[in-house]
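Priority: medium. Attachment 1 of 2:
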């Protein structure tokens, strides 16, 4: 890969107008197992909020529920940010909602793509997944010590393996054009910092409201696959804690904390 195509720290900071995110250390790997794993190590050693780990390629990119994240060299954004929010662990899902909104806003700001969010935090374009978020937290004495927020975004990914081809997409596939990853990463950092500031000053409600504007899920018929069961029904709402409220065909409401949603 040509150096000019890489997500180099010197290029990321150029024109970056954040105060904290990306302003601390940016650690760049040509290859690593998982940027979330690297960021957790750094956070365990005391790295401050705003520390960013990026990689050109991940050999064991982690997805939600123990899945892998397809991370071919130089194609996507594989980035993990260290946060040190003053919130109790049961509010940590807020970070994931906020990150999904930030990633969607960055895409809406810089592209013409029809970006939607699928509960809880998948970024879809034309019904296919373009980006995903994996938040991992560490707690200490009942509070969040740090959160590592990993963003995987398929930017210039030309094609996907057979098992995910039908469900995944990239900016390149959607537009036929390569997109500068650095511009997107910078905009994402800007949005993420602004939304985190908003969380601190105004609470979660305005963020959830924006999330609801950006989602297709509410009112839709869905199937939710969980480890031990599957529900089919209609999404009534997302409650103030980010829990999905599903009404089944008998009219019974279920509160769903986590699961895989298939839009029907
Ligand atoms: C999902 O399953 O939707 C979440 C995918 C998250 C992938 C990103 S890529 C950067 C960071 N490092 C990882 O190992 N995973 C996250």
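Attachment 2 of 2:
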């Amino acid at each position: 890969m040509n150096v000019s195509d890489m997500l180099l720290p010197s290029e990321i900071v150029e024109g970056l107008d954040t105060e904290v995110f990306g302003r601390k250390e940016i650690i760049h790997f040509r290859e690593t197992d998982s940027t979330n794993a690297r960021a957790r190590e750094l956070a365990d050693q005391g790295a401050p909020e705003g520390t960013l780990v990026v990689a050109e390629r991940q050999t064991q990119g982690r997805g939600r529920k123990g899945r892998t994240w397809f991370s071919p060299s130089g194609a996507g954004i594989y980035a993990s940010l260290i946060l040190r929010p003053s919130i109790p662990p049961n509010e940590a899902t807020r970070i994931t909602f906020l990150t999904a909104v930030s990633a969607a806003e960055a895409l809406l700001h810089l592209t013409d793509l029809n970006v939607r969010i699928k509960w809880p935090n998948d970024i879809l374009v034309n019904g296919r997944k373009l980006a995903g978020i994996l938040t991992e937290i560490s707690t200490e004495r009942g509070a969040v010590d740090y959160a590592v927020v990993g963003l995987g975004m398929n930017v210039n990914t030309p094609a996907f393996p057979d098992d995910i081809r039908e469900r995944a997409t990239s900016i390149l596939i959607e537009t036929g054009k390569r997109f500068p990853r650095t511009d997107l990463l910078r905009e994402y950092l800007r949005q993420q910092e602004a939304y985190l500031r908003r969380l601190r000053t105004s609470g979660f409600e305005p963020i959830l409201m924006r999330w609801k504007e950006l989602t297709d899920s509410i009112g839709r018929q869905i199937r939710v696959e969980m480890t031990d069961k599957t529900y089919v029904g209609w999404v009534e709402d997302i409650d103030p804690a980010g829990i999905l409220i599903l009404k089944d065909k008998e009219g019974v409401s279920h509160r769903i904390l986590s699961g895989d949603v298939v839009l029907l």
